[in-house]
Specification:
Blueprint (H helix, E strand, L loop, with lengths): L5 H7 L5 E2 L12 E11 L5 E11 L8 E6 L4 E8 L2 E2 L1 E7 L2 E7 L11 E10 L3 E4 L2 E6 L2 E2 L3 E12 L7 E3 L4 E5 L2 E7 L1 H5 L2 E5 L2 E13 L6 E6 L7 E9 L4 E4 L5 E7 L4 E13 L10 H6 L12 H10 L8 H15 L4 H6 L6 H7 L6 H14 L4 E8 L7 E4 L4 E8 L3 E5 L1 H6 L13 E7 L10 E7 L9 E6 L3 E3 L4 E9 L8 E6 L4 E3 L8 E6 L7 E9 L7 E9 L2 E10 L5 H31 L1
Parallel strand pairs: 1-12, 2-13, 31-38
Antiparallel strand pairs: 2-3, 3-9, 4-8, 5-6, 5-9, 7-8, 10-11, 11-17, 13-16, 14-17, 15-16, 18-23, 18-29, 19-22, 20-23, 21-22, 24-26, 24-28, 25-29, 26-27, 30-32, 32-36, 33-35, 33-37, 34-36, 37-38
């Protein structure tokens, strides 16, 4: 259920996918080699002029290429032209589901004979290579998927100096230069050939959003239903401004999800609106420490992630053969590269509405039937089998552009996060890499992946029906604050049970961090469930999401029934202090007790007198 729709893929793919199709070539045997010299010149308005200088070399005396074709996703290609040394070449443009197909026909000359070479130039302009997102520029150039032997490869990327220096670029360029108001990056050989080029000019992006949820209680009893609020994670900060109607409470679960709870009566339906702001970050905000217990949890096997299956283990051994001494990050990269190249996205399943989740084992045995979930499941199974903690993130990946966008449940996307001891949680999106022509999304956040919730495979929360979001230029202020509500009697009876309730409510728009609750007295003993009574209680409080609260109940032990004293009940939480003075009164001097004793004695005297009168009358009659 958690996969891109076909419409999403045809509009969100940002990269040029080169699919060289030489009609006379047998794919099982190389008949030609090629040299590539490609330039991408990005203008200040984001339009990219692409110039490809390609030289084909005949490796046999029996074949010659008759045409060259490439598929460019989307419909943002224009001004196409091709030529060789003898002049213009005939070109054909076709619209396909995957985008725009360009076909160059080699009608001017043929290269027959071993060692013969043929050179031609292909030019076009593309509005999809570079996009401006608020104040951020994002550029993605894919790898070339070639069917020929590559003898030489070089790529030149040129951007205006107004873009500034890139905050992220992968792979690293072999050379950087500046000339004529432009920054020029030169890429050569395998690094650029084996992967696409990603460049981001900017550190963060701000969004506003509104999510809609539909809740219904089909039970015959009242029921609590939960919805996930947008994630706050290492690469994303979420501020919740409003939840309507207000939830009963909200809390953070074991996956780090902020869940809001609503109570519904039998047969009741509710429409929930959640609005707020999201800030995404290029690099991790913090390095999260993963305990041994948590690490073990993210290494477990389940029905989707069959890490112990022999087929999965054998494939992992094949992937990491000769790389056993690699670091966890290097191993994860090899696994990610394998999954993104091995599986094939099956758009026919989307057309049929077939979103049945197949799991890792079925995915590896049926690589041509994959949707986004299968990419995620196979990668997590392989990572966990390699001893690398991994989890699934559900969210949505935005097409590049500054316009508002709207996503429905069927458009929700998912990707992988794995844990590295040096970096913390690291993002990897194998299906994104596969469907964008090999432009890796590994070990960085492209600022357009917005996380909704972590998924363990067993979560029971309800996902949104619709999410609307847009990029905003003004950063929203984070508001922090918590309220202490203490319920305790100012006078209590010595020797008898007494209780206190402490409620902490998050008043801010961000998750209130873990903190410490300290309760002090000098004489009254304090006791929580399953703990020994003491005058000081320290409690580590969990994270509290917006619109959330936590409660603590304490029992008060005052000593013998004749004790009489005053004590200070002091509560300290996150730098705030609240003190209540409690008067402990002995049983004999407690006003209610005095009235009760006097009343009881009076009743006893009346009963005694009545008994004597009855006895006297009975005796007199006899």
């Amino acid at each position: 259920m958690l996969n891109f729709s076909q419409k999403f893929f045809t509009t969100a793919l940002l990269l040029v996918v080169f699919l060289i199709a030489i009609s006379s070539v047998n794919a099982q045997e190389q008949k030609f080699s090629a040299k590539y010299n490609i330039s991408y010149d990005v203008s200040v308005d984001g339009v990219t002029e692409v110039t490809e200088n390609i030289q084909l070399k005949n490796l046999t005396d029996k074949f010659f290429p008759s045409n060259f074709s490439l598929i460019v996703p989307g419909s943002e290609i224009f001004d196409t032209q091709a030529s060789d040394s003898q002049g213009k070449l005939e070109m054909q443009t076709m619209k396909e589901k995957a985008g725009t197909k360009l076909i160059v026909k080699f009608t001017n000359q043929q290269i027959i004979g071993i060692g013969k070479e043929y050179s031609f130039i292909l030019k076009f302009k593309d509005k999809g290579i570079s996009k401006k997102l608020g104040e951020v520029w994002s550029i993605r150039v894919p790898k070339i998927t070639q069917q020929t032997q590559v003898d030489n490869f070089s790529l030149r990327l040129s951007v205006p100096t107004s873009f500034g220096d890139p905050d992220y670029m992968s792979p690293a360029p072999a050379k950087t230069d500046e000339s004529g108001g432009r920054i020029i990056f030169i890429f050569e050989g395998d690094p650029a050939l084996q992967s696409g080029i990603s460049a981001i000019f900017g550190q963060s992006l701000d969004y506003s959003f509104e999510a809609s949820y539909s809740l219904k209680n089909n039970s015959i009893f009242p029921k609590f239903l939960s919805i996930p609020l947008m994630l706050s994670s290492n690469h994303q900060k979420t501020l919740i401004e409003n939840i309507s109607p207000r939830p009963e409470n909200s809390e953070v679960d074991g996956e780090g999800n902020s869940l809001a709870f609503f109570k519904l009566n039998p047969g009741e339906m509710q429409e929930i609106k959640v609005s707020g702001h999201i800030k995404t970050y290029l690099t991790s905000l913090k390095k999260e420490f993963l305990s041994n217990v948590k690490s073990g949890y993210y290494l477990e096997e389940n029905k989707y992630w069959t890490k112990n299956n022999p087929v999965i283990k054998d494939k992992l051994s094949e992937i990491l053969k000769g790389k056993e001494n690699f670091s966890s990050l290097q191993k994860a990269k090899e696994i990610d590269k394998f999954v993104s190249n091995f599986l094939r996205f099956d758009s026919s399943r989307v057309e049929k509405g077939d979103f049945l989740r197949l799991g890792s084992l079925t995915a590896i045995n049926n690589p041509e039937k994959a949707l986004t979930a299968e990419f995620v499941d196979l990668e997590i199974a392989l990572l966990r089998s390699a001893g690398i903690p991994a989890r699934q993130i559900i969210g949505f990946a935005l097409p590049q552009g500054g316009k508002p966008f709207s996503y429905h449940n069927s458009s929700l996307h998912s990707w992988v996060e794995f844990y590295d001891s040096d970096l913390g949680w690291v993002i990897a999106d194998p299906s994104w890499e596969n469907t964008t022509g090999g432009a890796a999304l590994f070990n960085f956040n492209d600022l357009t992946h917005l996380g909704l919730a972590g998924f363990s495979g067993e979560n029971k929360f309800i996902l949104p029906d619709k999410i609307e979001a847009k990029i905003v230029e003004k950063e929203v202020e984070e508001k922090k604050g918590a309220e202490l509500d203490i319920k305790i009697d100012s006078e209590i009876l010595s020797g008898f049970p007494a209780y206190a309730k402490i409620k902490i409510t998050n008043l801010g728009n961000a998750t209130f961090p873990e903190s410490e609750l300290k309760v002090d007295t000098s004489k009254i003993l304090l006791q929580r469930k399953d703990q020994e009574p003491q005058v000081t209680i320290l409690t580590r409080t969990p994270e509290i999401p917006p619109f959330g609260s936590i409660e603590y109940d304490l029992s008060l032990k005052t000593g013998a029934i004749w004790n009489s004293y005053q004590d200070a009940f002091q509560v300290n939480f996150a730098g705030a202090t609240d003190t209540r003075i409690i008067t402990v009164k002995p049983l004999l001097f407690y006003k209610i007790f005095t009235v009760e004793i006097f009343g009881a004695l009076t009743m006893i005297m009346l009963f005694y007198v009545l008994t004597l009168l009855i006895h006297y009358r009975t005796y007199k009659k006899d």
